[in-house]
Amino acid sequence: MNQNQQKIFSLIFTIISVFTFVQCAKSQSQEMPTANTSAVPAGSRPFIKGEAAGEVQLFSFKSGDLKTELSNHPAPKVWIVFSTKKKQAETVSPNEAGITKVELTDEGLKEIALLWQVALLTRYNIDIAGTLDWDSYMKEVSKLFKASNKTRNRLMEVEIMSPEGKRTISDDEAGEIIKFINASAADIIAPFKKPKG
């Protein structure tokens, strides 16, 4: 991939990030949350926004085919963290400080695993596999963008047990998860990227 294609990919990735940020900001500016909070008591609205967190297994390339090893690398363990910190300064333990870690359901983890595969292999094709012609390059970028949006929409149908009760993942929480997955895939690929030029 030449330097102009690198710049264009960076620009498109930035646009995707800005789009995700705008969607998060849009959902926060609305009076009612985007999550389905029918199971949450009315007195607890607006709901507490969670943040994506997780753990990415270290990637160790042994030998052979890098693409095959990347496609076999497990998706990160992802969860949502809620901070309901108490006002008292003397809180010590995570529970007393009001930190709640909410695991995703198998349905949510399945969606994340699908996006993880697309994110890794798309970055492999763009950054490692070799020079792509313009059409091939745009197909790869489009594939990642579509997979990110599809996963985001499906995650917004997944129910979690938030500190206020059972509800679906909000638009901004889903966006945080997408950003975490894409950034983690970029970190895995980074040591193998071909130098520019």
How would you describe the overall organization of this protein?
Helices cover 51% and strands 13% of the residues. The chain is an alpha+beta fold and 197 residues long. It has one domain. The protein has a 3-stranded antiparallel β-sheet with strand order 1-2-3. Strand 4 (159-162) and strand 5 form a beta hairpin. Helix 1 (3-29) packs parallel to helix 5. The longest helix has 27 residues, at 3-29. The protein is globular, with a radius of gyration of 19 Å. The N and C termini lie close together (8 Å).
Element layout with pairings:
Blueprint: H1 3-29, E1 51-55, H2 66-71, E2 77-83, H3 94-97, E3 99-103, H4 106-127, H5 134-155, E4 159-162, E5 165-168, H6 171-189
Antiparallel strand pairs: 1-2, 2-3, 4-5
Helix pairs in contact: 1-5, 1-6, 4-5, 4-6, 5-6
